[in-house]
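Review this today:
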Amino acid sequence: MIVPAVGGRLRLALGCLLGLAWALSPARAQEDSKPEDFETVDPYTRGERAGLDAAGYVSLGPFPWCEGVTTVEIQRELGGLPILWVETEHFRIGSTLQTYKLSADKIERKRLSDELAWVRETFPKARIPAGKLDPWLRLHLYARRIESVHADFLRCFGLTEDDFGSGPQAIAPGPYLGMERKHTVLLSERRSSLARFVRFVVQRDGTDPMRERLPGGSLFFGISAEAVESWGHESDSALHAQVAANVAMNLAVAFRGMSSPIPLWFEYGWSHVASRRVDERYTLYARGTLREGADAWRWEPRVAGLVTNGFAPTWTDLAGKRRFEDLSGPDHLVAWSKAAWLLESLGPRGMRTYLLTVSDPLPRQDGLDPPAFRRDRELAALVEISGLGLERLEESWRRAALKATSKR
């Protein structure tokens, strides 16, 4: 009822990726099951219009979640579980994340220091707790983080808000990158809470993070901190990186109202770019790249090794991939490298042309082979936009990949 053909690919891919999860961490297993009590009134906006406007929010709830479901109904169905809500310009977000104690990790502390500076500027009267992120603060941080992924998408692909909706220059009718409704994100503390939410809203069982199409034209992403911890990563940075990766992927998949699936390799390459912009150490959704040593997250030398030894998949190889199972560890590494290289070398104007081309609906033509047509169309677009033949395009990327290693 909810998931069309493209949505089926979403479900399968994320399910396979998350089959890599490990046993639940002892710290989480020993926690009391009672959820943390959340403050009724947001101490940052104080529930006032001025505070909401300062942060760019529409509402802290209640509001419609998707067609036929409201946040009030979700809360009631989950037995009164404390859920914090926020509706931003492009997203509807729910969170049951609990207080996070800051770690000693220098990279995370630097990132959070920059983010908390925004909090102080946006909510000058609020008192920020020392050494921790309370549930409301986490909601505000993730709302900003998620909106920043949307802003990056528009910037990287040369898009504006005027490109969508009913205007004369619109490239898709839906106002949200072509979709009818805002994207939705649920950030859950525990797997069980995510499972209850999914059972009610998505109408299927599952505790793993997932991406689904919802009724009325919206894409959903849900994840639990417990799942990320079970992979051996208890930091806020790890959760943030996964949220960025999956929101970025949903934006790319939803482009132009899901009129045509974008190339699978680019879908994942783009998501890895988004993840690594947050923290390079936590690009967890890449088969064959998990737990392979302390420096496994340093992808530039690994890509260079594939290039040097002749094992890097070509543009044609990647364009022919149609199922997540077909993407190997090297495929993920090179998909990230090539996506990042295209974004830099083609720039927003070139990437806009690329995205528009590969997302065009298929022509109605007898005897059309959709996979072959999409592959050939993508390769032709790369050649035309870059002004290079496939061999020269391959060589240009190889040189850049080797040069990137020397910079690390």
Summary: The chain has two domains: 5-258, 299-407.
